[in-house]
Amino acid sequence: xxxxxxxxxxxxxxxxxxxxxxxxxxxxxxxxxxxxxxxxxxxxxxxxxxxxxxxxxxxxxxxxxxxxxxxxxxxxxxxxxxxxxxxxxxxxxxxxxxxxxxxxxxxxxxxxxxxxxxxxxxxxxxxxxxxxxxxxxxxxxxxxxxxxxxxxxxxxxxxxxxxxxxxxxxxxxxxxxxxxxxxxxxxxxxxxxxxxxxxxxxxxxxxxxxxxxxxxxxxxxxxxxxxxxxxxxxxxxxxxxxxxxxxxxxxxxxxxxxxxxxxxxxxxxxxxxxxxxxxxxxxxxxxxxxxxxxxxxxxxxxxxxxxxxxxxxxxxxxxxxxxxxxxxxxxxxxxxxxxxxxxxxxxxxxxxxxxxxxxxxxxxxxxxxxxxxxxxxxxxxxxxxxxxxxxxxxxxxxxxxxxxxxxxxxxxxxxxxxxxxxxxxxxxxxxxxxxxxxxxxxxxxxxxxxxxxxxxxxxxxxxxxxxxxxxxxxxxxxxxxxxxxxxxxxxxxxxxxxxxxxxxxxxxxxxxxxxxxxxxxxxxxxxxxxxxxxxxxxxxxxxxxxxxxxxxxxxxxxxxxxxxxxxxxxxxxxxxxxxxxxxxxxxxxxxxxxxxxxxxxxxxxxxxxxxxxxxxxxxxxxxxxxxxxxxxxxxxxxxxxx
Length: 642
Prior knowledge:
The chain has 14 helices and 27 strands. The chain is α+β, with helices and mostly antiparallel strands.
């Protein structure tokens, strides 16, 4: 893989080169992993694999002159190799001077080996943990990402990592190391094992063919390129002379629509609506597409326009992506995506209908399905191309197995019943599994809450012994998550969920109820919208099937990333007919104080005090940090920031 024929010199440069080559061969896989992790995810997995190998192979000349003698006491024989790889990877992360903003720069300005034709290479797919860590790394700046990899993968100290970054030309290496340390603290020691998994191993990639049909088309196109160029020149002059300078002439036409290749989703680091191909039996129906674009640009009188909260109704600013065009239930449906919004156009016997909803910053789960048709108490979804398995689970019946959901070749599902009845009626949710090309063993739940896109359901379990204080939500497919949603899901309001992006159920405390009432769990369910604000509902989940609603708070930071401390209170009737005030706090709570008609103080996370049903009380919590926390709903923020 790396070949050289060093020449001897009086100064020993040949010996140093030979030594560097030997060390590079011994550590080749580790250096490639280092380069792959530091390179920006925006390159795509195939380009990152090739770039990582190229950077390591080209690091030999830079590393050889600085390699110390093997017998130097305390020397690091790999420092120069590591430095050359990091310097090259960071250079690729920087946008070239005068390069247009928003335009991805070329991978290498000069072609470098290795070069692969006819194959797409990508590391083996990992699971949900690998996917989450990859997203966290992509959110870091390039120097901070390099610092994190040097600390966690290479095992360097903070000072050593800072020295490598400074030698690589990083202006403020201290800031990069601090940023990496913050991520390291939030992820815990388990991140080291995830970083060494197959997901980030560019030396054992999977090989898949490129688009064979597209390749054949390119050959035919190349044959006619000269003739096409001549015709285009003449046509451009004719069109320029003919086209009137009117507003209608600037409206997007069906010929301008962006159509993504069917296999693009498997070779991109941005797995969202931008990776969806155009599907449906009418994707070539220009008349239908032009009507849909015209209605979107300027809805005529009588058109029903539905907008999710916070969604602008502006016409398309540019040619949008075509996601779907076909007949669903005998009616024409067209789906677009303009980078920020989803737009659905429909035709039926009652006229035309337009629906718009925000979809910015979607991901592999929140871009996994959209509502294509709503009729007769049922919904048909259009699933993402990376969904490999689909089923339906009733949240109100956690012990019932999920039932397979039929999906047509174009991604349209069979009708799925909508949520019915108050209390605990049917609560159908989609249970989907991503393709192994995206992530191994990645299943997740989506629930129809009345929005354009179903909401992603997640679950945060009770803190266990030795678990990190800041636990991250996980997919709500495990037994404990299904039980939690089986109770909490009954109280969710599907009619008021338009614009909800994700809902997390956080079990923040557990309590043994007095008078033999059994074991209860306190749960905070947070619904985050595409706009940003979130609403919460706090439940007390006892032994019964139905959860008791404690409080609801709108537009709050509580139970989220910036509201990780929580205390709540409720009145509760025991099996013996006695009334109690119950209170519970999250992990950082060390004491609870009850004030009002009944007064009491307890150490720990929970409190249970006999009190009349109509007793007026308030609870405050003491935190391990020494601060005081009011009960949720009594403070403007609904909680405190950590």
